[in-house]
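Continuing from the previous page of notes. For each protein in this section, the sequence appears first, followed by its structure tokens. Read the first protein now.
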Amino acid sequence: MPAAPVSLAGCPLCEADGGTVVARGADWRVVLPAEPDYPAFTRVIWNAHVAEMTDLDEAQRAELLRVVMAVESAQRAALAPDKVNLASFGNVVPHLHWHVIPRWRDDRHFPDPVWGRPAQGRDAAIAARRASVAARLDAYVEALAQRLGPAGSARGS
């Protein structure tokens, strides 16, 4: 049975947006959490404090996955990454959220997860990639808005 929508005192994703909001729906928000090495690293956060996908009913799960897929699609269209990583852990912050991370073969951690040990000897490539992605963030946010339609039109709030 799905959990009732609640907020939890002390939960960082209940008490704050978790980054710069680029799209918002009634039940979710899409944020850029300011990851220096990954300027387009994006989180899709379910607004109600639940920990697992199975805490949502089928329609809510479908809506959340629709948004995650829209983020991935926008990243691919606007940024042309070599790969997109999707992750939903919640081990540290047990509030349902998805990480959608565009990856390039020359990024700081490739092919390992972004939370892994950094690769050595890529500083120049990393700086160039960071600048290239940062220059395309507006195009990415616009592509995301187009994919989310009216539900995500309250961007930047």
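Done with the first. The second protein uses the same format. Note its length before scrolling.
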Amino acid sequence: MQGENTIEKVRCLIIGSGPAGYTAAIYASRANLHPVLYTGLQMGGQLTTTTEVENFPGYPDGVTGPVLMEDMRRQAERFGTDMRFGIVTEVDFSVKPLRVTVDGEKQLEADSIIIATGATARYLGLPSEERFRGLGVSACATCDGFFYKGKDVAVVGGGDTACEEATYLAGLCRKVYLIVRKNYLRASKAMQDRVFNTSNIEVLFEHNTKDLYGTDMGLEGAHLLYKIGTPEEKEIDIKIDGFFLAIGHTPNTEVFKKYITTDEQGYIVTEGKSTRTNVPGVFAAGDVMDPVYRQGITSAGSGCRAAIDAEHYLAQL
């Protein structure tokens, strides 16, 4: 039996349990790297908060996010992944083997580490957002837009992502409201032109979302405030079936930033087309290093690449 202060030694440690982490675990297990995976706070990652997933290959009739993640977890365990619930609270990547602390107490030494901690979508912080999560509220238009075909929806945000999601939804939906806090769009000129030239997008400048309303069956509309704090302030309602957040994501990289190079938004920077970070033996996969695509399938693909990169690294040690 290990003593309390015994440091466990691991060949391949995977941090995170979304599509990237689970796929990395499947490949690392099959390569006999005997991976240990720590799930993090949200086992299965962001996809566990979605309902129907219709664009993941291999599920012709669609699948719910929780079932998809459970299938991936079972597949990784089948090949021998040591799956554990826990949160990495501290790392020391200045030493070899790499050192990690889990839940503030358990210490591990790892020859290789795959970071797959994902990114957290930013929400407005309204209680009603939580109530209608999966019942009209979404942070991914390309994931969930299809369910609102022919309906009226709103997108919140004024940057490139918001404009891109609004134009994407405009191709599916009857009407798209773009709710913008300021009196201008922050998006590039090209993206602004696309929005203003799309007839079924209505831009609501200087509007803030006060609340969302609906029933247990789903979202029905939003209460908006126009020109808050001015004599012109007034409340208006819009009837919508879908409410899409496009105000950014926060990559879950805080614990690694002392050692790992990140961009100005906090996403991990990898070398070229590889998943290698600036620290030898540390690799990154999924949304934690991908501010562009943010899809389950692209995360899974990068998890595969990270496991292969880790395997090659360990072979050269």
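What the second structure shows: The two ends are 29 Å apart (CA to CA). The chain is about 25% helix and 30% strand. We return to this in next week's lecture.
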